[in-house]
Amino acid sequence: xxxxxxxxxxxxxxxxxxxxxxxxxxxxxxxxxxxxxxxxxxxxxxxxxxxxxxxxxxxxxxxxxxxxxxxxxxxxxxxxxxxxxxxxxxxxxxxxxxxxxxxxxxxxxxxxxxxxxxxxxxxxxxxxxxxxxxxxxxxxxxxxxxxxxxxxxxxxxxxxxxxxxxxxxxxxxxxxxxxxxxxxxxxxxxxxxxxxxxxxxxxxxxxxxxxxxxxxxxxxxxxxxxxxxxxxxxxxxxxxxxxxxxxxxxxxxxxxxxxxxxxxxxxxxxxxxxxxxxxxxxxxxxxxxxxxx
Length: 293
Hints:
By secondary structure, this protein is α+β, with helices and mostly antiparallel strands. It has helices spanning 2-20, 179-192, 211-217, 233-236, 256-262, and strands at 23-27, 34-38, 44-48, 58-61, 67-76, 81-86, 107-112, 119-131, 136-141, 153-156, 161-166, 174-178, 198-199, 202-208, 221-228, 244-248, 251-252, 271-278, 281-288, 290-291.
């Protein structure tokens, strides 16, 4: 048993050491510094949005001990992700774990660099939240997020990074923004300075569908349109108050959350089929998706 524990212990120490080559200190707030992860060798850093309290005089502590300046590229409060560009190159880029490689019950290490040295704490992956249509993937763990750990990685015992840790999205819960979401958010922030999201301009609430429509569509609820903003994509596309949206571009809509989930960045500017129930009859409108301000 002691040899098994020693082997596991050595593997975890090696995983922390390997990940540490890509973990930086982020000084962007008055109190304790936070952590960040090297995203690309040319100085792009991902960290937690809530730890970047100022947009100038940001300092990054590199793994080799150097201190360099950094600028804010963009931030996305909904995923608590911010992207910085540090005045450095030749940085070590970590290996990221695929979604399929992360399972409930896996051991995982939260690693941070709020000071000069690495710090780590151990726990398990206790829950996974996968919403592929929203490009949002989170892991919940029972690790203790010590001060300054936000923005650092959750590390598998293989040394691969599962995602970016945050203590701000759910009070009292340790969440990790997984690699797939990080890729989507970081790409949008680097390209546009913001996370792009689609927009129709409607207010909706869930509603039960008539029996005939439910049988035809294979779903029991839709998103009832309660309001339509003037000169919005919805108004220009012919949507009216009282319509029930049941699908966008073939993606099922059952309530407000699934409607928002269907309005991905890839559909912005695209004219897509919006399936509705109007007067008990199913019909399809062509609507050009706008961009949420």
